[in-house]
Write a structure and sequence with these properties.
single chain; mainly alpha; two-stranded parallel ribbon; 12 helices; binds zinc ion
Length: about 260
């Protein structure tokens, strides 16, 4: 791989193109699977777990896919820049697992996810300031009822701000390149879960000692309906600490997960 100079224009464009195909493929695969399972197969056990039962405007799907494709391009450019930074030796990304040991793989993943969470939570609160909201965050909130396709539906201004954090993290946090790939895949997967409009987590998850720290569809749906609460990305701790977690969360979670046993 190192025989190519990633800064050479044709190589950089090819790299960006490949990254774009990868990001679009991963988004389409994850959102597509969720869509097929929850909206085509529509298993009976999950029907009562749907948050909004109303049909969505079909135009909204087209808008979400359009904006998500644009975001994928921005993520691809960020990815190609990360490759350039890596080749030039500016990052802490390493190739040999033995360099830090196996135990460091999950630890570095967790540290990176916590940094990402902190960046996103405060960025998200800032994007809800009226002027900024109208400028760059409204596009995402146009999905009043979300779908798996809403995952990357952002205005390019928001997409750009979101794409900056992973390149910054790898400047100072040693991460194996597979850990970076795993984090990016985790980001895609959790975004589809949180926007799927179906609560996938088990009953009691919202008060479980570990589950209570994770965001799911019920939690994030309250952000899309109430605006002023639930700003987190993966975890609930900033919302809990800053008292921005919706009071409706427990009640809604119980409602979305309570019919399963009744139906049997
Ligand atoms: Zn928002
Ligand atoms: Zn959202």
């Amino acid at each position: 791989m190192h025989e190519y100079d990633f800064t050479e224009p044709i190589t950089f464009l090819t790299l960006t193109g490949l990254m774009f195909l990868t990001v679009v493929f991963r988004y389409s695969l994850v959102a597509g699977i969720f869509h097929i399972v929850f909206y085509v197969i529509d298993p009976k056990d999950f029907r009562s777990r749907k948050i909004h039962k109303a049909e969505r405007d079909s135009k909204q799907y087209r808008k979400e896919i359009f904006w998500s494709t644009f975001t994928s391009l921005l993520f691809a450019i960020a990815g190609a820049l990360m490759m350039v930074m890596w080749q030039r030796g500016y990052t802490q990304v390493y190739e040999e697992i033995a360099a830090y040991g196996w135990w460091y793989l999950p630890l570095s993943f967790l540290i990176a996810a916590l940094i990402h969470e902190t960046y996103y939570y405060w960025l998200h609160r800032w994007m809800h300031k009226p002027k900024i909201y109208r400028l760059i965050h409204k596009v995402h909130h146009d999905s009043h009822i979300t779908s798996p396709w809403t995952s990357f539906s952002f205005h390019p201004g928001e997409g750009l701000l979101q794409s900056l954090i992973i390149p910054v993290i790898i400047l100072f946090l040693p991460m194996h390149y597979w850990t970076v790939v795993t984090l990016l895949t985790f980001m895609t997967l959790t975004s589809a879960i949180n926007h799927s409009n179906v609560e996938v987590y088990p009953k009691g998850f919202h008060k479980h000692w570990l589950g209570r720290w994770f965001i799911g569809a019920t939690h994030h749906n309250l952000h899309h309906t109430q605006y002023r609460f639930n700003f987190g990305l993966y975890f609930t701790f900033w919302d809990k600490w800053m008292k921005t977690e919706s009071e409706k969360y427990a009640r809604d979670f119980e409602r979305h997960t309570s019919h399963i046993e009744d139906e049997r």
